[in-house]
Amino acid sequence: MAGDGMTAGKQRSRATNGGAAVGGLRVERVWTTEGVHPYDEVEWERRDVVMTNWRDGSINFEQRGVEYPTSWSVNAANIVTTKYFRGAVGTDTREWSLKQLIDRVVKTYRKAGEDNGYFANPGDAEIFDHELTWMLLHQVFSFNSPVWFNVGTSSPQQVSACFILSVDDSMDSILDWYKEEGLIFKGGSGSGVNLSRIRSSRELLSSGGTASGPVSFMRGADASAGTIKSGGATRRAAKMVILDVDHPDIEEFVTTKAREEDKIRALRDAGFDMDLGGSDIVSVQYQNANNSVRVSDEFMRAVEEGTTFDLRGRLHGETIESIDAKKLFTEIAKAAWECADPGLQYDDTINDWHTNPETGRITASNPCSEYMSLDDSSCNLASLNLMKFLKADGGFEVEKFVRSVEFVITAMEISISFADFPTKKIGETTRAYRQLGIGYANLGALLMASGLPYDSEGGRSLAAAITSLMTGVAYRRSAEIAGVVGPYEGYARNADAHKRVMRKHAAANDEIRPAGTVATALVREATKQWQNGNKIGERNGWRNAQASVLAPTGTIGLMMDCDTTGVEPDLALVKFKKLVGGGSMQIVNQTVPRALRSLGYPEEQVEAIIEHIADHGIVVDAPGLKPEHYPVFDCAMGERSIAPMGHVRMMAAVQPFISGAISKTINMPESATVEDIENVHYQGWKLGLKALAIYRDNCKVGQPLSAAKPKSAVAAVAEVAAAAAEPVVEKVVEYRPVRKRLPKKRPSETVSFSVGGAEGYLTASSYPDDGLGEVFLKMSKQGSTLAGVMDAFSVAISIGLQYGVPLETFVSKFTNMRFEPAGMTDDPDVRMAASVMDYIFRRLALDFLSYDARAELGIFTAKERAAQIQAEAAAETAGVDLAGMAASAPVSAPVGAASTPTATVPAADAEREAPSPVGSSTELLEIVLGTSADAPLCFTCGTKMRPAGSCYVCEGCGSTSGCS
């Protein structure tokens, strides 16, 4: 698309009707090649998507022969197939190729664009079609989940993920709120609402009685959300409840969830199942919502000055009570310390950046706090994958980024022309103001790969520059579209305010102090975009009241194979990766070697550092790594985790360039004090954030049990000292292996097997006093090359066993070898195999190794895996602390090696507590670090989720706890 709005304006003829341009947008190629369809540029392959329960091996989902580019990861393909392909599984109407999914969406967008006059001619529409297809195919960006669910299907064309509702002080309005919220939850989306218009429990009704107050009505809404969730929604009901700080019931609202957390602890201690998702947690109220307090500048100044603050009646605005502002501020922090609620939203900052104040104030947000706009409105989201714009030499594809933002924002705008909405009011407001939410993912990975610490001036300046450029281009394109199809309906009455906010964005851009050549180039381009965009907007107006937000990018982040979500840093330096045909492996994040190379380390040092991280999970004491480079590898979790204010400062750096706000939770250590939280809340206001939420580690009962801490340094030193005190006697012993042959008559057993459709036979012979001594493998016909190789391999293994090579050694070396044939087997204990060798040695381990030995290798029978689940459930119900039992849990495979998704706890036999399995990066991180992570279990598949903004995302199935 034309990057220079002024040039584009000259190419179009002008109409006398309001000065709007006619003829439509001109579109230029960026990613594609003329005459070559994007699908013809990539290599495709057929895959079998089989989603198994990694605890017991049962199959949850199966679709074979799906088509994806070879570059797409297993996880991305699995999530897209299970969540986004439409049509009943096993029928001809079921989508089976990524091509079908992309075409279903892109063709709908193209047709709507042509029908509504967005393009100058069919040729421009075709280029738009191809460019959008290329970007989606290569994971350059993604629309939010509702687009993939609904666009191009017979369902309502619902494209928005974020909703804001309204409630007035009447029973009819309150009941409408319940209904509207339920409809949104039913579709798997989330909504937010401000209850401050409802009279407090300290005010009278017209009938003479006392009002119930908003907290009372929250109970009904909470029960409704829990009921709809349990009735089969795709994920937990996501909702936000907000109350203004001057509401007379504010103190009751602040402590509501903290008091419920006390109740949860009491019930847990009495033996009830109060884990998140437990059978008894439903008896506790207010658990389905995030709560936030809307604080004003007046209140925050009263906190600063130590003065009083007035709580005002809702009906007439009279002062009900004057309270100590600092005392209430401390109560808010104390409640957040106890249970993570409430968060804060800074009302005056939000409305100072509001483009439509003549229509109404911004009173609420969506559940994740990134969408802030008018009541009864919605926003559709799309996010760019920033790593796709990082050059091999460390530069940034500025021009391609600009053009990509143009394509994405144009597509998002077009979607409003055909979109359906859950209520009439939301549809009317959204069509009149056309709120969009372009954003990005992989910022943390981009900074690390660029050799910049997340918590640094360089990291913040680069993030600010990218964000400013993105929003500047989005608004410039919005102004150009307004020249084609007119500004948004509510623009005329809000024109002065909208222009004022655009000038504020441009002024903030001028305040960026870029560090480095990349940030300098980005700021230079951003300055041009804001200047051009504001000039075009002065003439045409803007097509969209809002352009950008920073969403959690949960499911779509996995779809794009992003290492980090939204504005977040890396979770940890090691991650959990699924493999084709089943199984998994833990790897050092691929961002790490790229970062080391950008910092100038030679290849041999890179390899040594990676090996150290593989063994320890951290960079501390890595060979050759300079201590001044440690901060580059700081993550959200782990020994060198980023300090809370590091997260706050990053949010403050990018907030001035976002139309809405930022979905992010500030994680704080368990040792954080109420005063620490007060400081974070205060600094968030001073630094100009719109919203802020904290989470103190282990502050909630409804979370997985903690693993034991690693052995203390004092204990380790004591052990070393004790060992040093003992005399050392040097002995030289020479060992020579002696072959122990099998007797003429020996017990043996034969197992027939099938791996990926290839059949064979395994015969294993043992010594009379037990112990494997010989194996024979038969595959293919006698005389064939394969049969000869298998015979030779069998002889080599048998001789090795007879010379005393432990079976454990062979199992550790040959399991997880990957080659064809691979895939499903007919063995109930080994459902998936990476190769024939992988299967054979797993089977031998199950037949000839003790439970302890197999536990060390992460190999279990189906019965043992099932017993583990039952034991864990029984122990949790009884309130047993399993922490100590996981203290010595080794990771099942070395970093970089494939493994079954299991980490183990040694046990004497199968009767003892079964090992704790690993099914996600969060669980892997817990094993590596020896500490627990406060993340819920996925309600769909049971895998521990990982943070994604202020929400959580499941790496197993892609489900999220909020926006996606």
From TrEMBL:
List the InterPro entries.
RdRp_reductase_class-2 (IPR050862), RNR_2_N (IPR013678), RNR_lg_C (IPR000788), RNR_NrdJ/NrdZ (IPR013344), TSCPD_dom (IPR024434)
Q: What are the TSCPD domain coordinates in residue numbering?
A: 743-846
A GO molecular-function term, please?
A: cobalt ion binding
Under SUPFAM superfamilies, the record lists: PFL-like glycyl radical enzymes
Question: At the top level of its lineage, which domain of life is listed?
Answer: Bacteria
| Stretches assigned to the Ribonucleotide reductase large subunit C-terminal domain | 160-695
Disulfide bond as UniProt keyword: yes
Top-level EC class: oxidoreductase
Cofactor(s) recorded for this entry are:
adenosylcob(III)alamin
- Note the Pfam families from the entry: Ribonuc_red_2_N, Ribonuc_red_lgC, TSCPD
Indicate what this protein is called per its UniProt record.
Answer: Vitamin B12-dependent ribonucleotide reductase
